[in-house]
Structures are given as structure tokens and as C-alpha cells.
Amino acid sequence: MAATNRIRFATLLLALVLVIGGAPFLGGSLLGLPLSRLTFSLLFVAGVYAVSRSRRVLIGGALIGLLAFVITWIGHYSEAVAVVVADQVTDLVFVMFVAFAILRTVVAQDEVSSDTIYGGICVYLLVALGWEAAYSVVEYLHPGSFTMGGVALSEVEGRDTSLRAYPELVYYSFVTLTTLGYGDIVPTTPQARVLSTAEAVFGQLFVAIFIARLVGLQLSRVRDGAGGGDSPRAR
């Protein structure tokens, strides 16, 4: 079972890497289609596969993922605000659903393994993408919530509107999650600032708690091993 989880989480991790870094390094399109949408479609499949251990979770993930997949490709042909917002909201729901399902699996493990590491990394990256979706919704509903060089993201020249929402916000989300704080993209409205603050706090807490969990599991295993070794001598 552990090997199966490892394959599922590693597959999802690969899909996440493609979503985050695919467009800049592989080009903006593939076969005439936006690479960002293609990689997100792959993410939907990998996400459902990652949570397929439980039948109930699998069904829930498949339904949400299918809805998100359909709306993502509708968004390729329509830039209506309602479609763009629905695209981001369904993405947000899907990645958070998958992140929570994986987190439950990781927390339930009683020893440190590659599953634990892969799962924890996947949760971290999924959360960053979830916040990016939330930021995009805020920017669409309140233009100017995020500015770059003093200009609202929705007005930045040279943006390819065929791409998903605001690709700049993927970068901003990771900068905020890791508290790098370059300052090139700035939240300017109360909604944007609250979300940014919450992500920065979550990023620090997640790393601290996750590492503490790993250390606790390892120490517990060492104590159990030491106790098992002493018991024969005691007898």
C-alpha cells in the first residue's frame, strides 16, 4: 500500500511541477493550445489519482475535478467575468479537496517514509495554487487589488489573456507562502492584504508543524526500537 501511495503522490508532484514551471520553460502553448490549461488538465487527473485510495474520496474528487476540467476549457473560449471566476473557484475547491485528503493520509501514517515526504510537498504546492486562485478571484472582482510596478495586474501590458487568469499571481502566491517578500507585486485592497497575510502565516506554520511531525514520528520509532532491544535483556 505504501508503494502505491508513493506512486500516486510522485505522479501528482510531477504534475504540480509542470503546472508551476511548465509555461516559462516549455513555452506558452503546445499544439496551438495554452500550455497552462493543458498542465492544469493533467493536474486534475493526477489529483484524482492521488486520492483514489478511498472510494468515497475518489468519487468526490472525480466529480469536482470533472467540473473544474470542463469550466477550465470553457474559459479558453470565453473571457466573461462569470466564467473566469467560476474557473478559479472550482480550481480552488479541487486543489483544497485534494490537499486535505492527502494531508489526512500523511498525518495518519505512523512512520516517516517517502510517502510522507511526497505527500507533504504536494500539500504545500497545492495550497499555493489554491491561494493563487483566491487571489485571481479577488483581482477580477476588485480590479487593482494587486499591482505590479504601480499598475493593476488587469492592466499590465503584454499579458496574454488566453492564459488562465493572472499567471503573475502564481509567482506572487509562492513568494508570499515562503515569505520571500520581493515586493514587485503588492496587495492594495483589504481583501488582498488579508489573504496575503493568511497565506504567509500558513506557510510558516505548515513547515514548522510538518517538520515537527516528521521528527516526532522518527523519535517515536527510535524509542520503540530501543525498547524492543532492551526487553530481551530485561527478561
Provide a descriptive summary of the structure in words.
The chain contains seven helices and five strands. By secondary structure, the chain is mainly α. The protein has one domain (2-224).
Write a brief caption for the model.
With 235 residues, this protein is mainly alpha-helical. It has helices spanning 2-26, 35-50, 55-77, 81-108, 114-141, 168-177, 190-234; strands at 29-30, 33-34, 146-148, 151-152, 185-187. A hairpin with a 2-residue loop joins strand 3 (146-148) and strand 4.
Q: Which overall shape is indicated by the principal axes computed on the Cα atoms? A: globular
Domain module count: 1
Secondary-structure element order, N to C: HEEHHHHEEHEH
Structural class: mainly alpha
Termini gap? 35 Å
SS field, number of helical segments: 7
Total beta strands? 5
The radius of gyration is 20 Å
- Sheet-strand content, in percent, reads 5-15%
Mean pLDDT: 83
